[in-house]
Structures are given as C-alpha cells and as structure tokens.
Amino acid sequence: MKTPAKHTHIINVRLKDARIANGYTAKEVAKSISISPQALSLYELGKSTPPPEIFNKLVVKYGLPVSFYYKPGFDNSMDGTIYFRKFTAATKAKRNEAQIFSKWFVHDIIAELNKMIKLPAVDPLFDRIKTSVHIDLDNFDYETMAKIIRREWGLGNEPLNDLMYEFEKRGIVICILDLDDDIDGFSYWSTGRPFMFLNARNNFFRLRMSMAHELCHLFFHGAVEDIKHDLKKIENDAKNFAGAFLLPDVTCQKYFNSISLQEFQYLKPQLKISITGMLKRCEQLGFISEERTVSLNKQISAKRWRKVEPLDNIFPPERPVLAKQSVELIINNNILSKPQLSNLFALPTDFIEYVCNLSKGYFSTSKILPIFI
C-alpha cells in the first residue's frame, strides 16, 4: 500500500473540531494560550495559519496527534438530517461534541477501512422504501412498516437475540460512544451508507430500543425536508415504530395475558424489552384501558422504575463487531502493522480502540480524550 502524500498545510476545520471535541469555547482556548478569540477564529476559518509556537500550544491543549491536523480529504458532508434522540434536553455543545466524534469515526476510520476491507453491502430494502411513493409520512403507519421490514429481512415475529448483528450484516455501521446522558443516540446517512451512534451508558434494553428508534430515522426520516421541522411528530413516529419493530402485535397476543407489572417483569428476559416498553406496546395495541394504563404508570413511578427497572442488568449490552473485525483482519493479514494503521487514522489510539470496540491498549497507551475519562 502506498504511503499517503505528506501535506504541509494545516486543515483549518480540524482545528475547530479539535476544540469542540474537547468541550472548549473559543474564548477559553484563546485565553489559555494568550491570543485573541479573533485570531483563533481566523485560524479555524482558514483565513490565517497559526505560527509554529501557537500551533504547538494548540496541539498540547487538545491532545490530538500532530498528523491529525494535516490529514487531507476530510469530508464534512452528511446525506440528510441528524435526529438526536432526546434532542430537546441535550445542549448544543454536547450535540456538537457527539457529532465531531461521529465524523472522526465515519471519515477518518471507516472511510480508511473501506479502502482495504469490503464492508457489508447496504441492504436494498433501504432504497426501495426511501424511494417509494406509497408511504405517507404525514400519516405514518408504523405497525405496517415494522412488519414489512421484519418480513423482508426474514426476522420472523419472535424477539431477536442479537439485534445489533442483524443491523450490521445489512450494511448499517454502528458505533458506541460515551455520550451525554441527554443523548440516547443519533443516526445519519453518509456517502450512501447508514450510520448509527448509540450511548454506551444505556443498558441492554434501552440500547435495543434506541437501535430500533434510529432504524426508523434511517429508513424514513434521513432526507425528509417537508416535515423536518415537526420534530415532535418525527420522534413520536420513531418511538412507536421501535415498539412495533421489537415486539410485533402477534407476539404480544401470544405472550401477554394479565397485563400486570408482575407479568411484565416475568416476561422481560424473554421479550427483551423494558417494562415501560411493554406497557406502552399494550397501550398502542388497545390491549389495556386508559384507566388501567394510568394506574400501572402510577405504580411504576411509585416503585421508582422510571430510570432503573428490575432485571436491567440481566444481559450485557450488545456491542458492534464490524469495525473491530475489520481492524483485526487488516492487522492479522499483515496488510498494515498496528503503528501504520493508527498513523493512517491520525487519531488518538485510545479513541480508535474505544469506537472500534477493541481492547484497551490494542495499539498503545496514549492520552485519553476528556470525553472518555
């Protein structure tokens, strides 16, 4: 493999992204290295180049490899809108941080891996549904669409043992990030491929709900312009779709009997969905009266199950394998050495190991970005 040509000019957008990824404002950085915010802005906009002494201070401040700032071919494009789950609670700064980390994963890691490894093809069902003229998003039929996707993918009606594996083998690239508590996940299309980013802090059940939620966005909302401002409706549709996808109506008819918290707790390990998720699903399907729904919700609140439910830790959260296996395939087949691959990515090895689900220290020990402490 040819060694990439060395570039001698700093890529200005990387200066800005490095600052945002560390959670700093321009004013904070400028003050810490004794320059004006205006000067820093000029560097980040590419209207001026920082002198060596200032650049060195920025490198130390941000803790990223020097090669990061010189790496060419940085693509900032995304094919459509990003929808952050629980977006209303997450601050703009936290959303921006998460977006930067996702860009590094997509454009600096996956794009490089894709040059050497044939990633799974994106399932054609995405294109068929996204280009269909028969889907009315203003009156979204989440029950029918969930059934169609499960049927076309041959998933049957029973709970899926490894939901992440089913998504990855159909071309969705998944990354686990240590996101802010107010961001359960987000997703977008880039260079014709769907990407999904999920919060590492979520337990097994919450993670699966987030995956199904983001699947709806990737299928139906990725490039929607006419309804993109109706965020409440979009999030509601995705939430309803997630329940229908994880727990088809025929499965509910098969398993639910008494519709009680005791029954939900008993079924939780089998159905692989939270107690609140089961209650919501029964409400959607009309299995339970409004009065009974209110009563059970009050019981859930009284038991303090809103944030932590019984059996939440019975299963370890699912983890992606696509990026991990790609890296190991390159290393194990001597396509590149570990130093060569980490240099190609031009990112801290701790970050690479984290987002690729590799063991800590797989490459080497280096400074960890603040977001991962």
Task: Give a concise summary.
The chain is built from 17 helices and 4 strands. With 373 residues, it is mainly alpha-helical.
Helical amount: 40-55%
- Unreliable stretches (pLDDT < 50, length at least 5) are 1-7, 224-228, 365-373
**Mean pLDDT across residues:** 90
Strand order of the largest sheet: 1-3-4-2
Helix tally equals 17
> What's the SSE pattern?
HHHHEHHHHEEEHHHHHHHHH
Radius of gyration: 23 Å
Which structural class fits the helix and strand makeup? mainly alpha
Strand content: 5-15%
Report the strand count: 4
Explain the overall architecture:
The chain is mostly helical and 373 residues long. Helices cover 50% and strands 5% of the residues. The protein has a four-stranded mixed sheet with strand order 1-3-4-2, sandwiched between helices. β3 and β4 form a beta hairpin. The radius of gyration is 23 Å and the shape is elongated. The two termini are 35 Å apart. The N terminus and C terminus are likely disordered.
